[in-house]
Amino acid sequence: MEESLSDLLVEYELAARANLNPAAFDFIAAGAGDELSLEESRAAWRRYRLRPRIFRGGTAPDLSTDVLGAHLAMPLIVAPTAYQVVAHADGEVETARGVSAAGGLMVVTTRATRTLEEIAAELHGPWWYQVYVVKERRLTEELARRAAGSGATALVLTVDTPYPGFKRRGHVAPVSPEQHLVNFGTHLTPGAAFEEVTVGIDQDASIRLETIAWLRDIAGLPVLVKGVLRADDAVACIDAGAAGVVVSNHGGRQLDRAIATAVALPEIVEAIAGRVPILVDGGIMSGTDVFVALALGADATMIGRPVLWGLAAAGAQGVQRVLDGYRTELGHAMGLAGVVATGDFSRDLVV
Predict the structure, then answer these.
(1) What b/e readout covers 212-250, taking b as 16+ CB neighbours within 10 angstroms?
(2) Can you tell me whether residue 44 is helix, strand or coil?
(3) β-strands 155-158, 127-131: how paired?
(4) How many CA atoms lie within 13 A of 97 on its CB side?
(5) How much is the pLDDT for 199?
(6) Less CB within 10 Å around the terminal CB: N or C of the chain?
(7) Is 88 a catalytic residue?
(8) Alpha-carbon separation of residue 247 from 93, 105, 134, 226, 311 (angstroms)
(9) How far apart are CA 270 and CA 296, in angstroms?
(10) Res 48: pLDDT
(11) Which domains does the chain have, with CATH numbers?
């Protein structure tokens, strides 16, 4: 029997713990506070049960879908995760190789440790750029335009991080100043001290709804808003120009005791009523979790830590195997539940 995704992720997490120094492992693994949101995010998906259909034919399910003009082989996107060099020497470049091999879509973060151009060169399909608006707004403008010029087809504006959440472990990424500034460097004032520069590239806590349209107009790309956990906020984002929302509690890394995304998703789906695509992340550890998210109304899902465990354990091949594992499990669940295509999901499939 083939190795299950659950077994693979356990194997890769254990390998990552063995391969990485403790500071690097904790930076990836940690949640905020007492890590209640981290634990509950995973458990919440597992509380749902499936209500399979019968007499739906025996053809292989079609896992493909389209989100904001990007054709996805499966409704799974690699979430933006910072400082991937802590997991592998080639960082985001190696992740991009694995994502491309699996035919996936990667969201490249503002806090990448390889240049946008290096990463984009390894991505053979659509990719998106995640934006942290920093205090020196000029830097955000220039990076957003640079991402668009390098081939990004959408921007993902993270809004749940006015400043980093408190963590008991792994609160500092073990990266060098050069790695920290690898994408900011060409846009900074020559000769500025690192301590002076870091003030300008800290998150800007003053962003507002107007920031959505500002960013869209700068880069000429659609903007998804990531970090939404309330229906009223989701509607406000769309009214302000968002092309999509990502239901996210930042992997339990920001506000501990923030609700699980599996809990937040249904009310947001109801409030948005199909106006824009809805993505969701947080604790999605299996293809069956993806199935539940799609049945609850998400258009696609995102995963973060599982990709990093694959990266730390086996590089690009590990990333590819993780994504292929999700694909296999989702297809298996769809086939057994009588769901012939991603457009065939409905709320009555789960309880």
Answers:
(1) bebbbebbebbbbbbbbbebebbbebbebbbbbbbbbbb
(2) helix
(3) parallel
(4) 13
(5) 79
(6) N
(7) no
(8) 27, 18, 22, 6, 25
(9) 10
(10) 98
(11) 5-349 (3.20.20.70)
> 165-168: long-range contacts at Cβ-Cβ below 8 A with a sequence spacing of 24 or more?
165/32, 165/33, 165/250, 165/253, 165/254, 165/255, 165/256, 166/32, 166/33, 166/256, 167/30, 167/31, 167/32, 167/33, 167/253, 168/30, 168/33, 168/34, 168/35
Q: Is 191 left (phi over 0), alpha (psi -120 to 50) or beta?
A: left
Crossing angle of helices 261-272 and 287-295, in 10° steps, is 30
- What's the number of CA atoms in the CB half-sphere (13 Å) around residue 106? 33
Structure tokens that stand for 227 in this block: 């970090």
Residues paired with 246 in a beta bridge: 226, 279
Task: Note the pLDDT of residue 186.
Answer: 87
Read off the tokens for 236. 């406000």
d(CA 107, CA 79) in angstroms, rounded, equals: 6
Type of residue at 41: S
What is the reported pLDDT for 2?
67
> CA nearest 112: which of 103, 122, 104, 102?
122
What is the four-CA torsion angle of 164, 165, 168, 172, rounded to 10 degrees?
Answer: -10
Q: What is the pTM of this model?
A: 0.96
Phi and psi, residue 70, nearest 5°: -95, 125
Pick out the chain residues at pLDDT < 70: 1-2, 191-193, 195-196
